[in-house]
Design goal:
Layout: E1 7-8, H1 12-24, H2 31-56, E2 67-71, E3 81-85, H3 94-114, E4 126-130, E5 139-141, E6 146-148, H4 164-177, H5 185-206, E7 217-218, E8 233-234, E9 243-244, E10 248-249, H6 265-283, H7 285-296, H8 305-321, H9 329-339
Parallel strand pairs: 2-4, 4-6
Antiparallel strand pairs: 1-5, 2-3, 5-6, 7-8, 9-10
Bound molecules: zinc ion.
Protein backbone atom coordinates (compact mmCIF):
# COMPACT_ATOMS: atom_id res chain seq x y z
CA UNK A 1 0.00 0.00 0.00
CA UNK A 2 2.84 2.38 0.76
CA UNK A 3 3.55 4.64 -2.18
CA UNK A 4 6.74 6.60 -2.24
CA UNK A 5 7.00 9.90 -3.91
CA UNK A 6 9.52 12.68 -3.93
CA UNK A 7 8.11 15.83 -2.45
CA UNK A 8 10.07 18.90 -3.44
CA UNK A 9 10.10 21.64 -0.84
CA UNK A 10 9.88 24.30 -3.55
CA UNK A 11 6.77 23.23 -5.46
CA UNK A 12 6.61 22.84 -9.28
CA UNK A 13 4.65 26.05 -9.89
CA UNK A 14 7.38 28.16 -8.26
CA UNK A 15 10.21 26.24 -9.96
CA UNK A 16 8.57 26.75 -13.37
CA UNK A 17 8.12 30.47 -12.75
CA UNK A 18 11.72 30.83 -11.59
CA UNK A 19 12.96 29.18 -14.80
CA UNK A 20 10.83 31.46 -17.00
CA UNK A 21 11.68 34.60 -15.03
CA UNK A 22 15.44 34.10 -15.27
CA UNK A 23 15.17 33.27 -19.00
CA UNK A 24 13.04 36.38 -19.65
CA UNK A 25 15.45 38.61 -17.76
CA UNK A 26 18.26 37.40 -19.99
CA UNK A 27 20.12 36.27 -16.92
CA UNK A 28 22.85 33.72 -17.34
CA UNK A 29 20.98 30.41 -17.93
CA UNK A 30 21.24 30.00 -14.31
CA UNK A 31 20.37 28.22 -11.20
CA UNK A 32 16.63 28.30 -11.69
CA UNK A 33 16.85 26.57 -15.04
CA UNK A 34 19.33 24.04 -13.72
CA UNK A 35 16.92 23.43 -10.87
CA UNK A 36 14.03 22.97 -13.28
CA UNK A 37 16.03 20.43 -15.28
CA UNK A 38 17.22 18.65 -12.15
CA UNK A 39 13.68 18.58 -10.79
CA UNK A 40 12.44 17.03 -14.02
CA UNK A 41 15.10 14.34 -13.75
CA UNK A 42 14.12 13.67 -10.16
CA UNK A 43 10.45 13.49 -11.12
CA UNK A 44 11.40 10.82 -13.64
CA UNK A 45 13.32 8.96 -10.96
CA UNK A 46 10.32 9.25 -8.72
CA UNK A 47 8.15 7.52 -11.32
CA UNK A 48 10.62 4.65 -11.45
CA UNK A 49 10.95 4.59 -7.69
CA UNK A 50 7.17 4.50 -7.27
CA UNK A 51 6.89 1.51 -9.56
CA UNK A 52 9.86 -0.22 -7.99
CA UNK A 53 8.78 0.45 -4.43
CA UNK A 54 5.46 -1.32 -4.92
CA UNK A 55 7.36 -4.54 -5.39
CA UNK A 56 10.30 -3.98 -3.08
CA UNK A 57 9.09 -2.00 -0.07
CA UNK A 58 10.42 -3.90 2.92
CA UNK A 59 9.06 -3.68 6.45
CA UNK A 60 10.93 -1.16 8.60
CA UNK A 61 13.82 -2.44 10.68
CA UNK A 62 13.83 -1.42 14.35
CA UNK A 63 16.60 1.10 15.03
CA UNK A 64 17.67 3.82 17.44
CA UNK A 65 16.61 6.85 15.37
CA UNK A 66 20.28 7.74 14.91
CA UNK A 67 21.25 10.58 12.60
CA UNK A 68 23.64 10.35 9.64
CA UNK A 69 24.69 13.42 7.67
CA UNK A 70 26.37 13.04 4.28
CA UNK A 71 28.22 15.67 2.25
CA UNK A 72 27.42 15.23 -1.44
CA UNK A 73 30.29 17.58 -2.36
CA UNK A 74 28.18 19.38 -4.97
CA UNK A 75 27.73 16.24 -7.02
CA UNK A 76 24.31 15.20 -8.35
CA UNK A 77 24.61 12.06 -6.29
CA UNK A 78 23.56 10.79 -2.88
CA UNK A 79 25.46 9.73 0.25
CA UNK A 80 28.84 10.77 -1.17
CA UNK A 81 30.69 11.08 2.15
CA UNK A 82 29.45 10.44 5.68
CA UNK A 83 30.59 13.45 7.72
CA UNK A 84 28.66 13.28 10.98
CA UNK A 85 26.99 10.39 12.78
CA UNK A 86 24.93 10.29 15.98
CA UNK A 87 26.81 11.75 18.92
CA UNK A 88 29.74 12.95 16.81
CA UNK A 89 31.25 16.37 17.46
CA UNK A 90 30.29 19.26 15.16
CA UNK A 91 32.20 19.33 11.89
CA UNK A 92 33.62 22.15 9.76
CA UNK A 93 30.61 22.42 7.44
CA UNK A 94 28.00 24.66 9.06
CA UNK A 95 25.18 23.24 6.95
CA UNK A 96 26.05 19.67 7.97
CA UNK A 97 25.69 20.74 11.59
CA UNK A 98 22.47 22.61 10.83
CA UNK A 99 21.05 19.48 9.18
CA UNK A 100 22.10 17.38 12.16
CA UNK A 101 20.38 19.78 14.57
CA UNK A 102 17.25 20.09 12.43
CA UNK A 103 16.87 16.30 12.22
CA UNK A 104 17.28 16.25 15.98
CA UNK A 105 14.56 18.87 16.50
CA UNK A 106 12.20 16.95 14.21
CA UNK A 107 12.94 13.69 15.98
CA UNK A 108 12.40 15.30 19.40
CA UNK A 109 9.12 16.94 18.42
CA UNK A 110 7.72 13.63 17.22
CA UNK A 111 8.99 11.79 20.27
CA UNK A 112 8.17 14.30 23.01
CA UNK A 113 4.92 15.78 21.69
CA UNK A 114 3.40 12.95 19.65
CA UNK A 115 5.09 9.87 21.15
CA UNK A 116 6.39 8.69 17.78
CA UNK A 117 9.77 6.98 17.45
CA UNK A 118 11.28 8.40 14.25
CA UNK A 119 9.60 8.29 10.85
CA UNK A 120 8.41 4.70 10.92
CA UNK A 121 7.76 4.59 14.71
CA UNK A 122 10.38 1.86 15.14
CA UNK A 123 13.39 4.16 15.25
CA UNK A 124 14.50 4.28 11.64
CA UNK A 125 17.82 6.02 11.02
CA UNK A 126 17.47 9.66 9.95
CA UNK A 127 19.64 10.40 6.94
CA UNK A 128 20.39 13.85 5.55
CA UNK A 129 22.45 14.86 2.52
CA UNK A 130 23.85 18.40 2.26
CA UNK A 131 25.59 20.17 -0.65
CA UNK A 132 23.57 18.18 -3.17
CA UNK A 133 24.21 19.34 -6.75
CA UNK A 134 25.35 22.80 -7.76
CA UNK A 135 23.42 25.87 -6.61
CA UNK A 136 20.46 23.55 -6.35
CA UNK A 137 17.36 25.56 -5.47
CA UNK A 138 15.41 22.84 -3.72
CA UNK A 139 15.26 20.17 -1.03
CA UNK A 140 13.37 16.90 -0.94
CA UNK A 141 12.66 13.62 0.79
CA UNK A 142 13.00 10.62 -1.52
CA UNK A 143 11.62 7.97 0.79
CA UNK A 144 15.02 7.21 2.32
CA UNK A 145 16.83 10.45 2.91
CA UNK A 146 16.41 14.19 3.30
CA UNK A 147 18.35 16.01 0.56
CA UNK A 148 19.30 19.70 0.83
CA UNK A 149 20.54 21.97 -1.97
CA UNK A 150 22.70 25.04 -1.37
CA UNK A 151 20.33 27.42 -3.15
CA UNK A 152 21.53 29.97 -5.70
CA UNK A 153 21.56 32.87 -3.21
CA UNK A 154 19.32 34.84 -5.59
CA UNK A 155 16.01 33.22 -4.75
CA UNK A 156 16.90 30.69 -2.07
CA UNK A 157 19.82 30.10 0.23
CA UNK A 158 21.02 26.89 1.82
CA UNK A 159 17.98 24.76 2.62
CA UNK A 160 19.39 23.61 5.95
CA UNK A 161 18.71 27.15 7.20
CA UNK A 162 15.07 26.54 8.10
CA UNK A 163 13.83 23.77 10.36
CA UNK A 164 10.52 23.93 8.41
CA UNK A 165 12.31 22.09 5.61
CA UNK A 166 13.16 18.79 7.33
CA UNK A 167 10.04 19.10 9.50
CA UNK A 168 7.92 19.23 6.35
CA UNK A 169 9.88 16.64 4.39
CA UNK A 170 10.27 14.00 7.11
CA UNK A 171 6.54 14.24 7.75
CA UNK A 172 6.02 12.91 4.22
CA UNK A 173 7.78 9.82 5.54
CA UNK A 174 5.45 9.65 8.53
CA UNK A 175 2.44 9.95 6.22
CA UNK A 176 3.88 7.19 4.05
CA UNK A 177 3.87 4.88 7.10
CA UNK A 178 0.43 5.94 8.41
CA UNK A 179 -2.46 7.17 6.24
CA UNK A 180 -0.46 6.56 3.04
CA UNK A 181 -2.33 9.44 1.40
CA UNK A 182 -2.09 9.34 -2.39
CA UNK A 183 -0.30 12.28 -3.95
CA UNK A 184 -3.06 13.58 -6.22
CA UNK A 185 -6.15 15.76 -5.80
CA UNK A 186 -7.61 15.99 -2.29
CA UNK A 187 -5.59 13.15 -0.72
CA UNK A 188 -2.48 14.83 -2.18
CA UNK A 189 -3.45 18.20 -0.73
CA UNK A 190 -4.05 16.53 2.64
CA UNK A 191 -0.63 14.87 2.35
CA UNK A 192 1.00 18.27 1.71
CA UNK A 193 -0.96 19.94 4.49
CA UNK A 194 0.09 17.36 7.08
CA UNK A 195 3.71 18.13 6.16
CA UNK A 196 3.21 21.88 6.61
CA UNK A 197 1.25 21.30 9.81
CA UNK A 198 3.87 19.18 11.57
CA UNK A 199 6.69 21.14 9.89
CA UNK A 200 5.36 24.33 11.48
CA UNK A 201 5.00 22.49 14.79
CA UNK A 202 8.67 21.44 14.61
CA UNK A 203 9.53 25.11 14.02
CA UNK A 204 7.47 26.17 17.07
CA UNK A 205 8.96 23.33 19.13
CA UNK A 206 12.54 24.23 18.16
CA UNK A 207 11.99 27.94 18.82
CA UNK A 208 9.83 27.57 21.91
CA UNK A 209 6.80 29.39 20.49
CA UNK A 210 3.08 28.68 20.56
CA UNK A 211 0.42 29.39 17.97
CA UNK A 212 -0.18 33.03 18.94
CA UNK A 213 3.49 34.03 18.55
CA UNK A 214 4.30 31.95 15.46
CA UNK A 215 4.50 33.58 12.02
CA UNK A 216 2.83 30.59 10.31
CA UNK A 217 5.13 30.95 7.31
CA UNK A 218 6.78 28.00 5.56
CA UNK A 219 10.32 28.44 4.26
CA UNK A 220 10.79 32.10 5.22
CA UNK A 221 14.32 31.40 6.48
CA UNK A 222 15.58 29.97 3.19
CA UNK A 223 14.70 33.05 1.12
CA UNK A 224 17.82 34.76 -0.26
CA UNK A 225 18.56 38.22 1.13
CA UNK A 226 17.04 39.97 -1.93
CA UNK A 227 13.70 38.32 -1.20
CA UNK A 228 13.72 39.01 2.52
CA UNK A 229 10.20 38.93 3.93
CA UNK A 230 8.84 36.48 1.36
CA UNK A 231 8.05 32.83 2.08
CA UNK A 232 6.87 29.75 0.20
CA UNK A 233 3.50 29.42 1.93
CA UNK A 234 1.44 31.14 4.59
CA UNK A 235 -0.67 28.81 6.70
CA UNK A 236 -2.64 31.62 8.33
CA UNK A 237 -3.31 33.56 5.12
CA UNK A 238 -2.81 31.23 2.14
CA UNK A 239 -2.23 33.19 -1.07
CA UNK A 240 -0.16 35.95 0.57
CA UNK A 241 3.26 34.30 1.03
CA UNK A 242 5.01 35.90 -1.95
CA UNK A 243 4.49 38.31 -4.82
CA UNK A 244 7.61 39.11 -6.86
CA UNK A 245 8.96 38.79 -10.38
CA UNK A 246 11.17 35.79 -9.65
CA UNK A 247 8.61 33.56 -7.94
CA UNK A 248 5.35 34.98 -9.28
CA UNK A 249 2.29 35.41 -7.09
CA UNK A 250 1.28 32.93 -4.39
CA UNK A 251 -1.68 31.06 -5.96
CA UNK A 252 -2.95 29.21 -2.88
CA UNK A 253 -6.70 29.46 -2.16
CA UNK A 254 -7.65 30.00 1.48
CA UNK A 255 -11.09 28.35 1.25
CA UNK A 256 -13.16 26.02 -0.91
CA UNK A 257 -14.44 29.05 -2.82
CA UNK A 258 -11.03 29.16 -4.52
CA UNK A 259 -10.49 25.39 -4.73
CA UNK A 260 -8.53 24.42 -7.84
CA UNK A 261 -10.01 21.19 -9.28
CA UNK A 262 -7.22 18.77 -10.11
CA UNK A 263 -4.68 21.29 -8.81
CA UNK A 264 -1.21 20.37 -7.63
CA UNK A 265 -1.28 19.22 -3.99
CA UNK A 266 0.73 22.34 -3.01
CA UNK A 267 -2.16 24.59 -4.12
CA UNK A 268 -5.19 23.22 -2.30
CA UNK A 269 -3.18 22.28 0.80
CA UNK A 270 -3.60 25.89 1.92
CA UNK A 271 -7.26 25.25 2.69
CA UNK A 272 -6.37 22.47 5.15
CA UNK A 273 -3.40 24.42 6.53
CA UNK A 274 -5.79 27.18 7.52
CA UNK A 275 -8.06 24.77 9.43
CA UNK A 276 -5.06 23.77 11.53
CA UNK A 277 -4.02 27.39 12.10
CA UNK A 278 -7.54 28.30 13.28
CA UNK A 279 -7.66 25.29 15.60
CA UNK A 280 -4.18 25.91 17.00
CA UNK A 281 -5.01 29.54 17.82
CA UNK A 282 -7.82 28.33 20.06
CA UNK A 283 -6.42 25.10 21.52
CA UNK A 284 -2.65 25.68 21.29
CA UNK A 285 -0.38 24.28 18.59
CA UNK A 286 0.57 21.01 20.28
CA UNK A 287 -2.93 20.00 21.43
CA UNK A 288 -4.06 20.69 17.86
CA UNK A 289 -1.11 18.62 16.60
CA UNK A 290 -2.25 15.69 18.76
CA UNK A 291 -5.67 15.81 17.10
CA UNK A 292 -4.24 15.96 13.58
CA UNK A 293 -1.73 13.21 14.38
CA UNK A 294 -4.50 10.93 15.66
CA UNK A 295 -6.40 11.73 12.45
CA UNK A 296 -3.37 10.89 10.31
CA UNK A 297 -3.36 7.41 11.81
CA UNK A 298 -7.04 6.94 11.06
CA UNK A 299 -7.21 8.32 7.52
CA UNK A 300 -6.65 6.23 4.38
CA UNK A 301 -4.97 6.64 0.99
CA UNK A 302 -7.99 8.06 -0.87
CA UNK A 303 -9.36 10.24 1.96
CA UNK A 304 -11.04 13.50 0.91
CA UNK A 305 -11.25 16.87 2.72
CA UNK A 306 -14.67 15.98 4.15
CA UNK A 307 -13.21 12.75 5.53
CA UNK A 308 -10.44 14.73 7.23
CA UNK A 309 -13.04 17.04 8.76
CA UNK A 310 -14.97 14.06 10.08
CA UNK A 311 -11.95 12.17 11.41
CA UNK A 312 -10.35 15.27 12.99
CA UNK A 313 -13.69 15.98 14.68
CA UNK A 314 -13.93 12.43 16.01
CA UNK A 315 -10.34 12.48 17.28
CA UNK A 316 -10.97 15.85 18.95
CA UNK A 317 -13.99 14.37 20.72
CA UNK A 318 -12.02 11.34 21.95
CA UNK A 319 -8.99 13.37 23.06
CA UNK A 320 -11.22 15.93 24.81
CA UNK A 321 -13.09 13.16 26.62
CA UNK A 322 -9.74 11.74 27.78
CA UNK A 323 -8.58 15.15 28.99
CA UNK A 324 -5.71 15.35 26.49
CA UNK A 325 -7.09 18.48 24.80
CA UNK A 326 -9.50 21.19 25.93
CA UNK A 327 -13.19 20.42 26.31
CA UNK A 328 -14.24 22.69 23.44
CA UNK A 329 -11.92 20.94 20.94
CA UNK A 330 -14.67 19.24 18.87
CA UNK A 331 -16.49 22.55 18.38
CA UNK A 332 -13.22 24.33 17.56
CA UNK A 333 -12.31 21.76 14.92
CA UNK A 334 -15.79 21.84 13.39
CA UNK A 335 -15.77 25.63 13.24
CA UNK A 336 -12.37 25.62 11.53
CA UNK A 337 -13.49 23.23 8.78
CA UNK A 338 -16.70 25.23 8.45
CA UNK A 339 -14.85 28.51 8.09
CA UNK A 340 -12.96 27.28 5.02
CA UNK A 341 -16.12 25.85 3.47
CA UNK A 342 -15.43 22.12 3.80
CA UNK A 343 -18.40 21.33 6.07
ZN1 LIG B 1 5.67 18.45 0.62
Amino acid sequence: MSRRHICFFVPPHIVDHMAKATAADGLEPGAAQRTAVASDKLRQQRRYATNASLATLTPPQPGKADRQVYDDKNQWDYDVQLVRGEGDQPVAGANANAAYDALGATRSFYKEVLGRDSIDNVGSTLVADVNFGELYDNAFWDGQRMVFGNGDNIIFKDFTGDVDVPGHELTHGVTQYTAGLQYTDQPGALNEAFSDIFGSCVDMYANNRDAGEHNWLIGEDVMADGLYGEAIRSMSHPGTAYDNSLMGHDPQPDSMAGYVPGGDPHLNSGIINRTFYLTALDLGAFPAAKIWYAALQNLWPTAQFADAAHVCGEMARILARDGVVARQAPQTVRAAFHEVGIV
